[in-house]
Amino acid sequence: MISIEQLSVEFGVKPLFRNVSFVVNDRDRIALVGKNGAGKSTMLKIICGLQKPTEGNVAIPTDTTIGYLPQVMVLQDNTTVKEEARKAFADTAKLKAQIEELNRQMAERTDYESPEYAELVAKFTQKHDHYMMIGGDNYEAEIERTLTGLGFTRNDFERPTKEFSGGWRMRIELAKILLRRPDVLLLDEPTNHLDIESIGWLERFLQQSAKAVVLVSHDRAFINNVTNRTIEISCGQVNDYKVKYDEYVKLRAERHEQQLRAYENQQKEIADIKDFIERFRYKPTKAVQVQSRIKQLEKIVPIEVDEVDNATMHLKFPPCLRSGDYPIICEDVRKDYGEHTVFKNVNLTIKRGEKVAFVGKNGEGKSTLVKCIMGEIPFTGNLKVGHNVQIGYFAQNQAQLLDGEISVFDTIDRVAKGEVRLKIKNILGAFMFSGEAIDKKVKVLSGGERSRLAMIKLLLEPVNLLILDEPTNHLDMASKEVLKEAINAFDGTAIIVSHDREFLDGLVSKVYEFGGGAVREHLGGIYDYLRSRDISSLNELAAMSQQSAAPAQTVATQQNDDTAASSGKISYAEHKEQQKKIRRVEKLIKESETKIEAMEKRIAEIDTLLCLPENAADMTLINEYTEIKSRMDEEEERWTELSEELEALK
């Protein structure tokens, strides 16, 4: 579909790419990977025509359409959400207007037998057929489905776009791109401003509805769920792996080992040749052999080993004071903005040492509750910050609070204490600051670089309660692992607002779900939470919030507990225990069926053997047959009991 041919890009002395070639085929799901600065975003810009390569070209068929979602975009302020999304169908609307104009002309004319009228009818028929073929009358429904999938409600459709935060406005742009149904989707960090539910919807859309996809993302779970091919940019070249990201990581490690062995063998060969040349350079009898070795040396093409950072960077938070047993206690906390209630009746207790996640759709109050804890905004109810609690807060706008007039190195040097000061360059390197970058002034850094610097600064401050609001948005996978390891080793308490499932997995032991004005507690990790909710769409999540058919243990005070109990509803703990019993019984039934199937197979084999004249009196086979038959009868009785138990539980 798209052919990249002999592509070279040079920004400075060292080229970004050299003679890169690959093809994007229909139905490809490509993850474009490589370390920061390798040129992933540049590659996307070149493919969509926003940037020109130094050499080479990108061959795109004339009828191929491309949709490109950059990390940063200019958004409109003068339309509503639905009007902005409707722009995706500008060509469809234009075609509809042309059809209406042709229809008007045909109605006004009476020269039905003339060639001009026949030409008009043919033109009308062609355009009308094309309009019907592209589903021109259905685009309003398609707009609503896509906006709803990305988290908007019907009440949002007529709201001006300027009322929404940057993350929500990015969703509008993403909706427009998806609605155009381009032949090739180029997505640069599409999950940065999406919540977990919207990421799930986008995953399903890309799996089922998209044609070809090329994406850059640091969300490991997302690219594993979406992609079937991984293209790595390394050393100015591309390496194409026809596998998902996790499999690519294994194959890349094997390939790197092979490269190292080949490199070492070549270096040995070069050393041997040079040694021969030096030993016999001045011996006339060896002149021919020496010249042969010199020519052989000139023909050797050096083996280049991929750039791999094998250094293991471990970062620990400095020792801190022991806080009280309960760093955060909320009692009937409520926050309203005018007539809009963000949340109410929030009752939660976070114990010392716990690491918890705040999740939910954007706008449901996660960051708002964090600001209440920080004392930045007023609220009603009682919120207690425990004894000796020292809070380290990473806000989404934390990068803007750094001193722009000092260097990257000085920013960290001012907070580093003790031996850590000797490792500042290593720490900066782990978060992608190296070489000349550490001497740059903060004011010239990009937004992503500032965020990473603010994160390093926080990691070095002695605190016992960490509050991190979307900490991974601008971190690559290696930096996220450094941060995750540091938080896991942190002996204080942590509250993490994040949509990154892989980052939260194995990190948090409790999840607080924000939605519908309430905050609900889910015991277990992030994947336990997702399994318990069994979320397949945002609509289902909303319905579950409203109906509470299988309610989570609510942290919001339930004023109708007695009513719920009397009407036969069960608590979250009871529901979870019941589901646990059902899963256990289902597992036992499956095991029983496997045993019965194996015994039936063996009995059939023995039957066949006993039918042979030579085995008719074989007591070993007869005894085995009797024993298996007895065991099978017992197993079938057990299967019946388990089936009845499962039916009763359900």
TrEMBL record:
InterPro entries registered for this protein in UniProt: AAA+_ATPase, ABC_tran_Xtn, ABC_transporter-like_ATP-bd, ABC_transporter-like_CS, ABCF_ATPase, P-loop_NTPase, Val-tRNA_synth_C_sf
Lineage: superkingdom: Bacteria
Gene3D superfamilies to which the protein is assigned, alphabetical: P-loop containing nucleotide triphosphate hydrolases, Valyl-tRNA synthetase, C-terminal domain
Residue intervals of the ABC transporter domain: 2-260, 328-541
Pfam families attached to this UniProt entry: ABC_tran, ABC_tran_Xtn
Keywords assigned: ATP-binding, Coiled coil, Nucleotide-binding, Repeat
A single MF term (Gene Ontology): ATP binding
Species, as recorded: Leyella stercorea
Coiled-coil segments on the chain, per record: 575-645
PANTHER family with a match to the protein in the record: ABC TRANSPORTER ATP-BINDING SUBUNIT, DRUG RESISTANCE ABC TRANSPORTER,ATP-BINDING PROTEIN
Protein name, per record: Probable ATP-binding protein YbiT
SUPFAM superfamilies on file: P-loop containing nucleoside triphosphate hydrolases
Family under the similarity heading: Belongs to the ABC transporter superfamily. ABCF family. YbiT subfamily.
